[in-house]
User: What shape does this take?
Amino acid sequence: MKKGSAGKWIRWIPAAAVMLLIFLHSAMPAAVSSAESGAVAGILAKLLGLDAVPPAFTTLVRKAAHFTVFLLLGLCVRPNMKKGWHAALFCLLYAGTDEIHQHFVPGRSCEMRDVGIDAAGALCGIFLWLLFRKIKQGKKNRTLNNEC
Assistant: This one.
């Protein structure tokens, strides 16, 4: 093993943790997943001052969860790949395999719409990581210029 190669594997731990979270939630039967989404929607509805949970609100919560968890995956995967499009392709492939996985879970389905939502979240995460890196690099350059 080359010197420093263990560090490269350790950097993948956050991405692997997010991928495990996605896998475990995708493995939930539809009844369990719906109950979880309904509970979260109920809490959010109360926080928003709603007396009841509108039917579309639970769907919105489910889709926002797709987007958010893949945004996290994009943030975690990007630092481990040299090019942003590699990270985007990785996340897209994972989104596709996640939906295929759901096809085999009782009551769940495989939806291309969800792959699109997942991909949009991942792209936002990758973009945010690139933006943070650019801002950090700009601050570093300004500090170096001020020292000269």
Residues 5-147 form one domain. The chain has a mean pLDDT of 90. Residues 38 and 55 are 10 Å apart (CA to CA). DSSP finds six helices and no strands in the chain.
